[in-house]
C-alpha cells in the first residue's frame, strides 16, 4: 500500500491560495499544544508523587509500637523503615518525572525554532507570490486594454481612409502606430511578468515541498516522542510498584519471624514479679485468737458454733470504770 505524505496531498487549485499549507501549520500547532499538555501532566503527577512521598516520610517518623519488644518490635521497626524507603523511592520517581517533563519541554522548543525558520521563509514566499500575481494580473489588464485600443485605432483608420483628407489620414495613422506600439510594450511587460510569476511559482513550489517534508518529519518525531514518553512513564510507575512490593516483602519476611509464644515468654522472663499467688486473708475473731479461713466453706454444712463463757469479774475496785458483761447465751456467729 502506498504511503501518504504531506507533500502530495496539500496543494490548492488557485495559485494564491494557502489552504493546504495552513492546514498543516494548524495541525502542527495542535501537536505543540498536546506536547505542552503532556508536559504539564508530567509536572503535576510529579508534584503529587512528591507530596505523597513527603507525607509518607513524615508518617514513617511517627511513634509506632514504641513499647513493643522482641520479635514484634523488630517487625514493626522494619515496617517503619521500609515505609521510609518507599517514600524515598516515590521522591526519586517524582524527580524522574520532572526530568522527563524537561526533556519534552526541550524537544518542544527545538521543534518551535525549526518551524519558525521554515514558516518565516514560506510567509515571505507567499507574499512575494501574491505580489507578483497581482502585478501580473494588472499588466494583463493593461495589455488587454492596449490591444483593444490598437484594434479600435486600426478600425477607425480603415473607416476614414476614403473620406478624410491626407492630413487626417496621417493623424489617424500616427494614432494607430502609437496604439500598436503601446500594445506591443504592454505585451512585452505582460510576458515578462508572467515569466517572473512562473519563476516565483517554481521557487515557491520547491520550498513548499521542502516545508512539507520538514513538517512531516517533525510530526513523526513528535508522535514517536510522545508515544515513547508515555510508555516510559508507565514503565516507571510499574517499576515503582515492583520496588514498593520488594520493600514490603522485607516487612513480610520480618513478620514471618514474629513468634507469638517467644514474645510471650520474653515478656514473662523480662517482667515477671513472682510465681506464687498471695495467701488467702483469714477471718480473725475479735474475741478469740482462733482464726477462721475467710474463703468459702468447702461443704454446704454450717461450720460449728463456738460459744464463749462468761467474762471474769473485774479486779478493779475503784468504781470509776464500768465493765459490761456478756449474756451466756451470746453467739459469735449468727445465721
From TrEMBL:
SMART domains assigned to the protein according to its UniProt record, in alphabetical order: FCH (SM00055)
Gene Ontology molecular function, alphabetical: actin filament binding
Residue stretches of biased makeup (Polar residues): 155-166
Protein name: Proline-serine-threonine phosphatase-interacting protein 2-like
Compositional bias (Basic and acidic residues): 137-153
Any single Pfam family the record assigns to this protein: FCH
GO cellular component: actin filament; cytoplasm; plasma membrane
GO biological process, any: actin filament polymerization
Domain F-BAR: 4-263
Protein's UniProt keywords contain Transcription: no
Keyword tags: Coiled coil
Xref: PANTHER family: PROLINE-SERINE-THREONINE PHOSPHATASE INTERACTING PROTEIN 1, PROLINE-SERINE-THREONINE PHOSPHATASE-INTERACTING PROTEIN 2
Segments of this protein annotated with the region Disordered: 137-169, 288-320
Record flagged with keyword Electron transport: no
Tree of life domain: Eukaryota
Gene3D superfamilies on file: Arfaptin homology (AH) domain/BAR domain
Organism from which the protein derives: Oncorhynchus kisutch (Coho salmon)
Amino acid at each position: 500500500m502506498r504511503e501518504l505524505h504531506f507533500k502530495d496531498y496539500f496543494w490548492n487549485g488557485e495559485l494564491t491560495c494557502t489552504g493546504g499549507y495552513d492546514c498543516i501549520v494548524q495541525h502542527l500547532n495542535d501537536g505543540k499544544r498536546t506536547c505542552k499538555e503532556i508536559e504539564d501532566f508530567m509536572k503535576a503527577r510529579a508534584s503529587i508523587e512528591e507530596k505523597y512521598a513527603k507525607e509518607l516520610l513524615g508518617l514513617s517518623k511517627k511513634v509506632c509500637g514504641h513499647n513493643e519488644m522482641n520479635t514484634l518490635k523488630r517487625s514493626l521497626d522494619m515496617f517503619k523503615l521500609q515505609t521510609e524507603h518507599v517514600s524515598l523511592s516515590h521522591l526519586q520517581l517524582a524527580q524522574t518525572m520532572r526530568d522527563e517533563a524537561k526533556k519534552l519541554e526541550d524537544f518542544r522548543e527545538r521543534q518551535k525554532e525549526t518551524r519558525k525558520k521554515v514558516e518565516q521563509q514560506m510567509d515571505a514566499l507567499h507574499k512575494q507570490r501574491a505580489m507578483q500575481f497581482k502585478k501580473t494580473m494588472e499588466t494583463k489588464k493593461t495589455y488587454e486594454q492596449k490591444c483593444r485600443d490598437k484594434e479600435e485605432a486600426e478600425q477607425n483608420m480603415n473607416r476614414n481612409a476614403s473620406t478624410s483628407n491626407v492630413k487626417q489620414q496621417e493623424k489617424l495613422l500616427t494614432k494607430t502606430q502609437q496604439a500598436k506600439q503601446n500594445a506591443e510594450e504592454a505585451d512585452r511587460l505582460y510576458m515578462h511578468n508572467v515569466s517572473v510569476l512562473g519563476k516565483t511559482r517554481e521557487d515557491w513550489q520547491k520550498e513548499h515541498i521542502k516545508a512539507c517534508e520538514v513538517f512531516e518529519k517533525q510530526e513523526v518525531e513528535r508522535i514517536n516522542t510522545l508515544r515513547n514518553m508515555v510508555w516510559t512513564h508507565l514503565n516507571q510507575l510499574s517499576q515503582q510498584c515492583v520496588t514498593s512490593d520488594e520493600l514490603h516483602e522485607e516487612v513480610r519476611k520480618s513478620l514471618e519471624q514474629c513468634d507469638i509464644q517467644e514474645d510471650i515468654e520474653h515478656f514473662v522472663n523480662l517482667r515477671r514479679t513472682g510465681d506464687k499467688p498471695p495467701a488467702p486473708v483469714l477471718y480473725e475473731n475479735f474475741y478469740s485468737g482462733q482464726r477462721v479461713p475467710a474463703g468459702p466453706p468447702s461443704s454446704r454444712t454450717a461450720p460449728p458454733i463456738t460459744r464463749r463463757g462468761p467474762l471474769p469479774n473485774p479486779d478493779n475496785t475503784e468504781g470509776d470504770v464500768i465493765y459490761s458483761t456478756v449474756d451466756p447465751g451470746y453467739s459469735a456467729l449468727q445465721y
